[in-house]
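The step that takes the researchers longest sounds almost clerical: writing a folded protein down as plain text. The outcome of that step, for a single protein, is printed below.
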Amino acid sequence: MNILDNLYWAYKSKNPIQQPEAELDQSGFMTKTAVQLSTADISDTSNSVTLSFAGDILRTHRTSVAKDQVYAEIEDLLFQDDILVANYESPVTTQPLIDEVIGDAGPPIECASEEQFDALTSHNERFIDVLNLANNHILDMGVEGLETTLNVLSDRNIMQIGVNESLAEATAVKTIERKGIKFGFASCAFGTNGHALPEGQKQSINIAKLTSKHQAPDTTLLKTQISNAKAAGCDLVIAIIHWGHEFELFPRRAQQEAAQDLAEFGADLIVCHHPHVPQPIQLYRTQTGDRTVPIAYSLGSLLWGFADRDIASSTIMQIEVQKTEGKAEITNLKATPVRWHAHEIDGNVFQKVARSEG
């Protein structure tokens, strides 16, 4: 980002862009909060799995978080499903915490303490199951922040996607299984805000040119991961992509074309983050006509410090997957708008997430 990009970023943070590009194909955009995607018999839930997907989770110094209070009003949307997935953007660190500064000097630094991490990612001892770490803030606190975050996730049995902890893991498939249904994850980010790991560092991060000004999104890495997941026998392949343009309420046409190409290639569900505002969910019918692939172009920020209505709003997407005669498919999808708000306890201001009032 150059100085003009930074100034435009600051402008959009106060004035989110409301209109889509003229070229954007809006067919298939969801207009209802719930849809049925399959005519299969869903009366037998013994072989069905529910997954919840949430947006960006970021700590802010403007308000505090209290354990078991952040998600108390939306517990049923996240912590009662079989698998919970979110994008985590505040590296856990033992270094002094840095207060986020929003301005035109460049991207803010994000970070959190271990105690804050627990409040941000759990409710009544249930942690989010899968956290995407392939995002532009994962190296904000350097190698220490990355390694501390990985250790904290490991201690809590949280599966992370997007970071390879060894050279051998770079081509491995991250999977999770429930009720005999095997889910595989592809994950990639557009960059790390100019931060890089030192040469020879054992970890690596899934990065590709996904939001370039000069070329179409490079989905080669994502396609490799999708192919590997298929080869590993995954019943459903989920692509988690960190890309796009912040504070814009619609994706760009180039993103849409790339996402639809990934659906054609074999992704069964595409979930995106980074714009910090909710964008539409498209139900994309593949050219063969035999698959409908939901594409959530941005779920928005589940937690951050902005109070602007669009930026404080996000979407929790829940899907039901059923496996019948060896084939898994998405049977139902529900999208619930939520919004974080501040509430006071003993004179201190804390964050809480609740259903949006519209």
Notes: Helices lie at 3-14, 75-78, 114-121, 142-155, 220-231, 253-265, 309-312.
